[in-house]
Amino acid sequence: MRVSRVQAEVNRQSVINVASQLFRQHGFDGIGLKDLMAGAGLTQGAFYKQFASKNDLAVHASARAMQASLERWSDAASGNPEHPLAAVVAFYLSKGHRDELQDGCPIVALSADAARQGPEVKASFEKGIGDLLELVQSWMTPHDDLEARARAMAAMSTMVGAVLLSRSVNDPIMADQFLQAAADSIMAVSERAPEAVAKS
């Protein structure tokens, strides 16, 4: 049966959404096309009608995951407009976010993989990282100077590294300490921050 253009686009978006989750869970090379398509309820035969290659899908899935992260950061910040950075730090460095593999931060889950991919995938990561960095910089005081940019970069690097390290150890106490130490460090240098971020 011939699939309509509308249904084909629905199917394409479904594959991108599922791939953005499954790539975060398994890595770009840790899951094949058959399982990616099955996750979207489709057969592998339909893949090449929608995407030029697995790399093409990785580009779109990376962009989708980055956009989802930007929305989650924005939502967290809007919940505490007086201290948006503190709100995002509390969300990002929480045990709940640490344990979210499919829906968690794509920078943590896929940066090492992205470094081994082609320029198109790297461009998706660069755009997404740039958008998040701009958001963090807007919460620094003043937000339009080089020092604010450097502090935003340091804050993002600390957050990503803490979640990565927290995920990589067996000891639950050490895992939680990485998160809390990072939160404390970021808030100590933020001029807009409250005195402390509540432990998650």
UniProtKB/TrEMBL annotation:
The HTH tetR-type domain, residue ranges: 9-69
Instruction: Write one Gene Ontology MF term.
Output: DNA binding
Keywords of this protein's UniProt record, alphabetized?
DNA-binding, Transcription, Transcription regulation
What InterPro entries does UniProt report for this protein, alphabetically? Homeodomain-like_sf, HTH_TetR, Tet_transcr_reg_TetR-rel_C_sf
Pfam families named among the record's database cross-references: TetR_N
Keyword flag Transcription regulation: yes
Q: Which domain of life is it from?
A: Bacteria
Does the entry feature the keyword Zinc, yes or no?
Answer: no
Instruction: Identify the DNA-binding region of this protein by residue numbers.
Output: 32-51
Q: Give the protein's recorded name.
A: TetR/AcrR family transcriptional regulator
